[in-house]
Amino acid sequence: MTDTTTNQHYWQGAFIGDDEAARRLETLPAAVEAALAAPLDTETLLAACDALAEALRDPGHRIRERLVPHLPTGPGEEAGELFAELAAFLDRSALTRKLRRELGGTAPQRLNRPDAKETVYEAWAPVGLVAHIAPGNAATVAPLSLIEGLLAGNVNVLKTSSADTLLAQHLLAELAAQDPSGALAERIIALRFPSSRQDWLRLMCAPADAVAVWGGEAAVEGVAAHVPAGCRLVEWGHKISFAYLTPDAWADEAVLDSLARDICLFEQQACSSPQVVYLDTRDPDELHACAGRLAAALAAQPAPAGEELDPAEYAELTTTEHLARLEEHLGFTRVLAAPDATWRVMADTRPALTASPLHRSVWVKPLPRKDLIATLRPMRRYLQTAGIAGSRTDTAELSALVLAAGATRVTPVGAMTAGYAGEPHDGVYALQRYSRRVAVQADERFATTACLDDLVRPAEFPRPAGPLLDKAAVQHLNREVDRRDAELYFRSGGSTAAPALSLFSYEDYDTQMHAAARGLLAAGYDPARDRTANLLYCGGMYGGFISFFSILERLGGVQMPMAAGSDHRATAEMITAYQVDTLFGMPSYLWQLLHEEADLLRSYGGIRKIYYGGEHFTEEQRRVLTETFGIEVIRSLTYGSTDLGPLGYQCTHSTGSVHHLHADLHTLEIVEAEADRPVTPGETGRLVFTTRARRGQHLDRYVIGDLGRAVPGRCPCGSHAPRFELLGRLGEVMRVATYFLNYRRFVSIAAEHLRYGGEIQAVLSSGPAREGLILRMERSHVTDAERAREVFLASYPELHSAVSEKLLDFTVEPVDGADLARTATSGKLLAVVDRRR
């Protein structure tokens, strides 16, 4: 990269020197305003972080090679540990979990409706500019603090110590390089200068909306003087942690060994390392006995690395020990120390919390639990971790007491320095400190607008790359999914191919259900008024019924989860009894239900809306539903698949099979039928989806098997989400007698020329002389099979040619609707049944 001996500051994509940094600091407010003008998509950051994490895990990667010269430890085993620590933080799954836990989701800046029954929108918005003042003793804190600011969507300016290497600057530059859009670079400024340079510190803090300070009281005081009124000061200061042992625990050698490991790990440099060990007693003899046994446990630990203390640390250590030894003569203390001075235990009969000089130095003090709050609460500003050892009942009781006293985390002894993904830091969630909760109240004009952002700009992501994936390839990828990421198993209905298994984490599922819920609002579903019968099929690992149960749950809609069943009379009676006005279901099932129970349901007259999935109603069927049953709204529940989840939704302006893309979940390409090339705009092609943010899975460029075309222009509903029109399945194009015949063409001819409103099924067979095509139609809707046959022959030239050339036997066969072949799990009509060998 650039010469870092002079260019040691990283500013929005470039390394610069002191003079240029000083000039740019004067114009920092304008730079921040320009960067904030374009919102940062969280997915852009997650993708960049994940790519950088992958590079840091690879010992031979060029990014690691470029960063090694800037490591404080240099190359070697410690370098690998540092890269592993950074990669673990940057991993997509870890950051996704952090976003969900701290800000409620992976797109927290989008203005969504927290209560679908109200046109009120809320989001977590960035505070604006966050200034990060990093400590000089932790190499990873500086860049990771800034990345937390990015997760909240902020512009960030970072100060590292002049004694630090340029690791933070170069790591952040590598992160920005993973984003070709440049959006991340616009939000990253990383400077390196001493704290004595007060003019620079003032310039970086003056326009800040939040200032994050890492360090002790002196560091915080030094920065606080530059923090303007109204700016949020976020202190990540030094903390004190302690262990608390009950009599049973301190009598257990294993507990003391675990405590010794907590003391020795990191040489007590972590805020979560124990500096004091409290015993649930007043007895000095028990105190001294426990101190002796702890000293023996420390003596058994491996020797420290041998790094020399700096003069200030050595002075504090020796002064504390000497003062404690002097107080032995007064009966207050007793000091037990290693002959080589590598550890020391200082037993003190006074319970007041006392900071340790660290480096394997620990106080042991008596503190009966009834005095715990009174003793510790005066020091509540400094308390962090309490490691508790005791029975299950003791642990529960003592946890409540230490938290009331001011501690922010409780762990078992032996795990005080260990954490977990998404853990709050010092009693707060960092991302909430760097965010604002904002709200927009809207009127009834926005009843079908689930997300305000859709009216402002389209979701734009990098163009997908790589080969096209078919269902077999996706099934192969599923077999490689880590079992930790496979928490929910669904099987496809098998309507167009053999059933396939799809795996989801619960996080994936929740994200998709929220997206589908927003789609239902756009389609005119009203959770405040609609009373819904969920009549989708259920069971056999099929997820339709379960998914829409979950979607209605998230919307807070009233539902009767009946599921599709063979007893249509019972279903119709429940619809009337519970005043259902909205039906969810497959078109074929709803069609049968309404016609078999037409008298009861028409006399009830309360059904106003139908939302369907899996298939489509023809125009003639829609006419019948409207004129015969008084249905006012007939729209798609969702367009989706079992393996990808919800892909598209209809709005109140959508007609036929036109859908909006769930652009916050997927990218859509339309490619030619025979080649991986984009179709001419407006032409029909194969729909290819790339789905994002699936934990443990990369479903990129999946050829789902559907045909469609892009619908140009912005929708009258106002949404920027792209639109597309579904035009059937690849499997509905039949190669018969040297001709290609399209099932959808038969459906259109029947509706247009025969005013046919029933279902149609094409059955292909092999005969001794020629192939056969039987078009099965419901006898309740077709009165003259021979006339229907003649209409098809007259309206479909390719069909007429195949028959006239004696290459195909074609017949129309009236059947009962119940006799049409359907999938066993979803009940979906099999459009084409191929019985040819």
Give a brief rundown of this model:
The chain is of the alpha/beta class and 837 residues long.
Question: Could you walk me through the main structural features you see in this protein, from its secondary elements to its overall organization?
Answer:
The protein is an alpha/beta fold and 837 residues long. Among the domains are: 9-237, Aldehyde Dehydrogenase, Chain A, domain 1 (3-Layer(aba) Sandwich); 240-412, Aldehyde Dehydrogenase, Chain A, domain 2, CATH 3.40.309; 737-834, GMP Synthetase, Chain A, domain 3. Helices cover 34% and strands 23% of the residues. The strands form eight sheets. Strands 2-1-6-5-4-7-8 form a seven-stranded mixed sheet, with helices on both faces. Strands 11-12-13-10-9-14-15 form a seven-stranded mixed sheet, sandwiched between helices. Strands 24-25-26-30-29-28-27 form a seven-stranded antiparallel sheet, covered by helices on one side. The longest helix is centred in the middle third of the chain and has 17 residues, at 506-522. The radius of gyration is 34 Å and the shape is elongated.
